[in-house]
Amino acid sequence: MSWNKPLPHPTEISAPYWAGLQAHEVRLQQCDQGHWLFFPRTHCPTCGSRQLAWRKVSGAGEVYTYTVARVPTLPEFTDEMPQLLAVVALDEGVHINTTLVGVAPEQIRVGLRVRPVFDDRPGSATLLRFTPQDSVHPGVIAADAAAQPQQSTAPAAPRQTLPQVDCKNLDAMRALVSDGYSDWSNEIAVTQELIDQFAQLSGDDYWIHTDPERARRESPFGTTIAHGALVQVLISRLQLPMEFEVTGYHNIVNYGSDRLRFPTPVPAGCRIHARYRIKAVEQVKSGTQMTMEINVHVVGQDRPSVINDLVMLYM
Ligand SMILES: [Zn+2]
């Protein structure tokens, strides 16, 4: 299973809830009048009391409602299809949005008794899922050490307001051009599973990408490598730390690429990240054209694996 998925960022108010899940306990807030509440808050929505305490509960409850999602809610969840999205009513009465595990879609029904499953993600996050009371599914999904989290260098801080640059202000746009690169994006793992999926999608299933055994014996790299085109499209999963926001346009057109190079391979299982610089800004007939050089590197490698001079047209 791939771990290239969004993970929660605990806030000061919600931190005890997430810490509880890490300890494999469901902890809820209860006010001094006895009302249970969820999601975590500073006051009771029933009586307004601010006298709240965190208490451990069993986590037992029942399916309040559910949806079997056959189209991924985010591209990152394509390996979990169908997604068994549910609202679980805990016995304390609170409702929790979650996903069900260890159950076939046709077995789910409203009122189904469920118990918690603590899904330890690599790193610091544990997610709360549920499985039927009588399921044999383990109560804990252990973090897969081989699949690292994406969050190590992800920009976790709340998004700040970025300096705005009007696309019609050519001087201001040209001031963005720089020889220096941005900070790094988040990291994602290029797993053999992703490579196999891309091989199937693109039709390029050459053994150098898809046959780990033969690659070990015969490939100069000693292992399978990702398709350059795959690494290039994975840029969409890398959140580049933008330092500005372009405004004042009606439309942005992705005009393609001035240069696309694959200088070094990405071996299967490696983690990648990216950075960028604005390489050029010019006025063209239909608007302002900006060339952004995006470099994707294997984490720790000096030489990039992909160089993409992306051309965007602000109209
Ligand atoms: Zn209350």
Automatic annotation (TrEMBL):
Gene3D superfamilies reported in the protein's UniProt record: Hotdog Thioesterase
Chain ranges of the MaoC-like domain: 185-294
UniProt domain ChsH2 rubredoxin-like zinc ribbon: residue ranges: 18-52
One of the Pfam families matching this protein, by short name: zf-ChsH2
Domain ChsH2 C-terminal OB-fold: 54-119
Protein name per UniProt: Acyl dehydratase
Lineage of source species: Bacteria, Pseudomonadati, Pseudomonadota, Betaproteobacteria, Burkholderiales
